[in-house]
Amino acid sequence: MEEQIKEKAILVSLVLNTNLGYDPEESLEELRLLAETAGAEVVGKMIQKRNRRDANFYIGKGKAEELLEICQESNADLVIFDDELSSVQGKKLEELLQVKVIDRTELILDIFAIHARTKQAKLQVELAQHQYNLPRLKRKWTHLERQRGGIGVRGGPGESQIEVDRRLVYKRISNIKNELNDIEKQHKTQRKLRSRKFNVSLIGYTNAGKTTLLNALADEKLYTANQLFATLDTTTRRVDLNGNVEILVSDTVGFIKKLPHQLVASFHATLEEAILSDLLVHVVDISQPHFENQINSVNNVLTELKIRDKEIIMVFNKTDLLGDYDEQINEIFEKYPGSILLSALNNEGMETLTQKLFEIATESKILLSLKIPFDESSILPFLYENGDVESEDYSEDGVKVEVRLPRELFYKVEKFVD
Question: Do strands 235-241 and 245-251 pair parallel, antiparallel, or not at all (unpaired)?
Fold first, then answer.
C-alpha cells in the first residue's frame, strides 16, 4: 500500500496586546500535536504581535507577505492559524499565499472526522462541519474547486458538495439533527434501564488517560493511544467495587483549549452521559507542565454545559512520568483538597480511587431490609428498577429483600422496613 504524502504545514499564532498571560508557545505546541494527529508535517511556525486583528489578512499584509516567503522556502502546502479566521481573511490569505489555509477549528473538526467510528459520532462531526462552513460557503467552495482533499476537508462537506447551495446545506443540517434526535431517544431508553445504578463519568482534557483509567477500573483493554482525541464515542462499563457494589463508569470525549462551540453543541448528546451522571471524575495529566491551564479549559466547557456544580473528584494521572514530586503533591493537595494521585497505566493508587468511589456510591443509597407481603409483591419490580437488590428470600408470609435504594425513594417502601 502506497504511503500517503504528508502535507507540510506552517503554524501561525497572533498575540494581541490584550491577551495578558497568554503563552503563544504553549498554544502552538498543542497546535503542532493537533496537526501531527491530522497527518501533517510541521515545517515552521510564526508568531505575530499586534494591537488588533487585521480585517483582511489577520496578521497584517506585511507579515502575510513574510509568511509567503517562509511557505516558498519550506515548500509548505498548508498554513494553520491558531485562532478562527473569518471568510474574508481566509480568502485573502489563500489568494496571497497560494496554499491551503485553515484555522484551529477546521483542524479539530478534521481530526474528529478521522476518528469518528459510530454513526452518531460521524453525524455529530458532519453537523459541526456544516455549521462551521455555512457562513464561509463562498470561500470554502471556491478553494475546494482546485483542491485534491487533505486536512480540513475530510468526513464532511468536500468535493462532492462544491455545487450545493445554502438551501441544501440547511436541509442537510435539519436531517442530521433529526437522525441524532432518533439516536438520542434510543440512548435515553438505555439510560432508563441503567438508572438504578450509580453512574460515574470520566471527563478531562484530551489525552489525559481517561480510557486507560476505565480499562484499569473495569479490567478491560479498550483502545488507547498517546494521541489527541484517540476516542470520540462514549463507552460505558460496569465496575464492581469491593465485591458488593456495582457502578457504571463512562469514558467521555476529551476536551481541549478553544474547543469549537460547534462541537460542544453537536456533541451535546454524547456529553449527556456527563450531564446526567451522579458523579464526575476529572482526570488530569499531571505530567503536563501547563496542566492547570487544561483544568481551566475543562471547567469552561463544564460551565457551558451547565454542570459545573456537580460533585467532582479530581484525579491526577500519569504520576509514573514524574520524578521526585513530593513538593508538587503538597501543592496539589493544598489547592485541590480530596484529590487523588495515581498512575492508571501502572495501576498505582487505584485502590484509593476505588475506595473513594465505593464510599460515595454507598452513601448515595441506603441499605434496607424489607419484608413484603405476597399481596403487595407488585413493589418488587420497582425495587429492581430503582435500586440494587442484594438478596431475595421467600417465606410463608412474604418476601424478605435486602436492597440499596436512593434516599429520596425511601418513603415508597418505608412501611415494609423490617
Answer: antiparallel
